[in-house]
Design goal:
The complex is a heterodimer of chains A (439) and B (292).
Chain A: H1 3-22, E1 36-42, H2 46-62, E2 66-72, H3 76-85, E3 92-96, H4 100-105, H5 113-118, H6 128-132, E4 135-136, E5 139-140, E6 143-154, H7 173-183, E7 185-186, E8 192-194, H8 209-212, E9 218-219, E10 222-223, H9 228-244, H10 246-254, E11 273-277, H11 280-287, E12 294-296, E13 311-319, H12 327-337, H13 340-350, H14 361-366, H15 372-380, E14 384-385, H16 393-408, H17 414-435
Parallel strand pairs in A: 1-2, 1-3, 13-14
Antiparallel strand pairs in A: 3-13, 4-5, 6-11, 6-12, 6-13, 7-8, 9-10
Helix pairs in contact in A: 2-13, 9-16, 16-17
Chain B: H1 2-35, E1 38-39, E2 47-48, H2 52-59, H3 61-92, H4 99-107, H5 114-124, H6 131-138, H7 150-161, H8 166-177, H9 181-189, H10 194-222, H11 226-231, H12 244-254, H13 258-283
Antiparallel strand pairs in B: 1-2
Classes of the chains: A alpha+beta (439), B mainly alpha (292).
Chain lengths: 439, 292
Amino acid sequence: MSIRSLLLVGAILVATIALAILGERATTRSASTDRVTVIYWEKWTGQEGEAMRTIVDDFNKSQDKILVKYLTISGIDQKTMLSAAGGNPPDVAGIWQDQTFQFAEAGALTDLSPMANEAGLTRDYYISSYYDALAKEGKLWALPSTPASIALHVRPDLVPKEYSTPETFPKTLEEFDAMCEKINVRRPDGSLELAGFLPSNPGWWNWSWPLLFGGQIADENGPTVDTPEAERAFEWVLKYSKMYGVKSIQNFQSGFGNFASPQDPFMSGKVATELNGVWKGNYIKVYRSDIPWFAVPFPYPKDRPDLANHTFLSQDVLVIPKGAKNVKEAFEFIRYVQRQDVMEKLCTSHGKNSPLQKVSEEFFANHPNQAIRLFDELARSPKAIYPPRTGFFPQLNSEHGNIFSEVNTQAKTPKQALSAAQNRLSTLYAKYKSQVLAK
Amino acid sequence: MKVNRRAWVGILFASPWIFGFLAFMVYPLAFSFYASFTNYSILREPRWIGMANYQELAGDLVFQQSVQNTVLYAIGAVPLGTILAIALALLLNAKVKGLAYYRTLLFLPTLVPMVAQATLFLWVFNGDYGILNALLRMVGFSPPNWLGDPAWAKWTLVIISLWGCGHAMIIYLAGLQDIPPSLYEAAELDGAKAWQKTRNVTLPMLSPVIFFNVIMGVIGAIQIFAVPAVMFPGGAPSRSTYMYASYLYDNAFQFQRMGYASAMGWVMFLLIVTLTLTATKLSEKHVYYETK
């Protein structure tokens, strides 16, 4: 090979490596504009994604200094974390509320409190529980994009007539359990055809059962899993497992279709009641608008009337990852989303309630969910609960999934399952403190 | 001097690969080895803790359960997959009409993406409406709940693994076609029947291919991740399908315990190396290499 050819090959190689190193980067995709480009990663696809895209388009049209580039990203939590570790994160990321403190305690988020306070986005601007779920020790790590509250959805055509209105529906768990026993229908071979209620459906919030019985799963010193309230909660789960039978539940539940389909057990009439979020109304509208339904607060234990109107809250949130290049502009966009008219437009499109203290009458009047006032009231309830504000929540959540599974399959008694989980979580929390919190 | 220049040109042409290998293989490997001796939570600097991660693994009950699940899966999936792939290869090695179509048909399932495969099998194994249970009921069985029963969920994964045996089958087929026909002719002259020819000619001649496929099968089984992740999130029910790779992934990306996950990765590596070396040693007397 001649020197000339060698030089040519060398030049191509250098150009390739240079392009790889200096080429397009996640946060510096430059648009042909003088505006500052804000890169926004969001998890939503489909209708929810399009609703947010409309908000982004509105923001881009509303001013000429900032251009938000909206990108739908799968596995957004891991990618945001890794991009922050690599020093090249997006300017705004849409994650989930229950991950906020995992990110914050790992040092992956920017404290929004100075900018939020200056912009008037203080606690009294929001429904307090939604704000509190994102703030700790004077720092604010995220602001809501869309929130939700959870309630019991009921099919009046499947429950006994005397319980078929929100007013006459059982208020206490004891009454509720008795009603469910009346609803259950079995086929001649003994298999279930209709269930009053299944704690394992949809099975998304197993960490919350102890809280619905007045307990807590963690305090400032770490996990508090094996409390009397938790034992009572999982005894209640066990009661349903015994009522139906383990195999019967397994067979019955394996026939359930996806929640976003007409085969969803609530929509297809396999369960008469289901604990679910405000978004459920959206799916009913799309897949089975013909079915009657209403929503009520989840019943409370008879001896704990103080727990009436309890619910738990979840939120999709907007954060600014640590190391974002355009923090000021990113917050400008987040601030825009918090405007009452913008937030109401977004929440209406998503079929959710608003996280803001002030809500217009038009929002309620035009909202697609018939029970939106209830979900709004529940969010404002002093008994509204949210996941513990600790970065250790993923482990707590994972262990509660396992406790639930062990109790529901009757592999362990609630006491055994809770005690084993407490031991394991205590050890893991000690590691978490030293590894992540560096304490 | 001329040789040196030629060598440099070769290295230059290979340099993109060398660069990629160093940056994306050697560096991550070395870093994960270092990380396995540290507290490392991705966003904070790794802190040296010596053997603590490895010591913790020894007492971690969930780790032990994930190892047990994975080993049971491998014990089920590898032999069954091997037997089925050899049987199919033997059938496809016969001289029958439309052979090319049969080969294509049996290889096609391996092209289905993992996630699509998992979604498909969620329906096939559905306890109430699945086609498998419908067929079993038709012939008078009382079928189990494959997906919901902790006693059956793992074995569901074993059965699903057979879906991808087309890959090994093609390699066996190539091995079968490499066996000299003269050996079969000699066996026939000695009066050997079909089974005797299979046992005394085919299997010994195929043994290096079987050995290779078994080793690859064991490695694949120990690393199983995608199908259980889609079909049994969180290792449900009751962690009966929680596999080694799933627990490793959760520690790394859900719980931010990258140091601990790195230690798990290296233990997995050692496990695979040990199994491979043991298998190589044990197979010395049973694997026939023509060149030896």
